Amino acid sequence: MAPAAERPILLVAAHGERGGAGDNARLASIADAAGALLPGWDVRHGVLSGKPALEDALSGPAGRTVAVWPFFMCRGYFTDTVLKKRLDGLGLEHVMLDVLGESRSFVELTCEKLLRKAGSTPENVLVIAHGSTKGTQSRLAAEKFAGWLAEAGASPNVTCAYLEEPPFAAGAIAGLPQGSVIVSLFAGDGLHGGQDLDDILAESGRDDLTVVTPAADTQAVARIVAGAVVNRLDAFMPASE
């Protein structure tokens, strides 16, 4: 194995948790597990807001290509503008991989966990995502994810609701038939996925609903990370290798 200073770098990048524990523990766990699966790589993790900061995570990699795996549920402002600007500011050559939420592997993971937890194919599944009043990326990505989930056999009825745009999560949850399943489409365990959604569920008084949070399975997500890297090896390795 090449010395650490010569290995290509894989950065597992996220927004950074607000609220909840705010310790980005899920992100760190994914990076650690991905590192064990990719022994030829120098795997690191960093966030746009909080610690470890992106710049601190990428200190010292001069001359090495950086693969960036975005721990986000959709491409949008934070990945295509903020993250890119921060990486460009460091002057590092980098290759951006697909975000978690737009990966077919993540859909398969969600379907598997959903069917296992529900015990059978549920009649109704509600995907709850962030949504936005400033752009359509979050909504469109969630709708695509829901479509893929239905195609994978998760349920004949897969719909979406959001925290920041209609249809809002609270109303959608109130209208769910008995025994429905909710998919929490959030990467981190901070303000939105670990606090806002929990509060909405508690206020709903619904104790008949099953909640699935696929991103919480950090070992499975790490396998998705490793697969994304292996599928793009030609972008990181010299032709001779």
CATH architecture of the largest domain: 3-Layer(aba) Sandwich
Average predicted local confidence, pLDDT: 88
Characterize the overall form: elongated
Structural class: alpha/beta
Biggest sheet, in brief?
A: 4 strands, parallel
Number of helices: 8
| CATH topology (level 3) name of the largest domain | Rossmann fold
Low-pLDDT residue intervals, each spanning 5 or more residues: none
Determine the oligomeric state from the structure. single chain
Output the radius of gyration: 18 Å
C-alpha end-to-end distance: 13 Å
Helix and strand string, N-terminal first?
Answer: EHEHEHEHEHEHEHEH
Tally of distinct domains: 2
The order of strands across the largest sheet is: 2-1-3-4
Describe the structure.
The protein is an alpha/beta fold and 241 residues long. The protein folds into 2 domains: 4-101 and 218-235, Rossmann fold (3-Layer(aba) Sandwich), CATH 3.40.50; 103-216, Rossmann fold (3-Layer(aba) Sandwich), CATH 3.40.50. It is 39% helix and 15% strand. The chain contains 8 helices and 8 strands; from the N terminus they run βαβαβαβαβαβαβαβα. It has helices at 25-37, 54-57, 77-89, 104-118, 137-151, 169-174, 191-204, 218-231; strands at residues 9-14, 42-47, 66-70, 94-96, 125-129, 158-162, 181-184, 210-212. The protein has a 4-stranded parallel beta sheet, with helices on both faces. Strands 6-5-7-8 form a 4-stranded parallel beta sheet. Strand 3, helix 3 and strand 4 form a beta-alpha-beta unit. Helix 1 crosses helix 8 (218-231). The longest helix has 15 residues, at 104-118. It is elongated and about 55 Å long. The two termini are 13 Å apart.
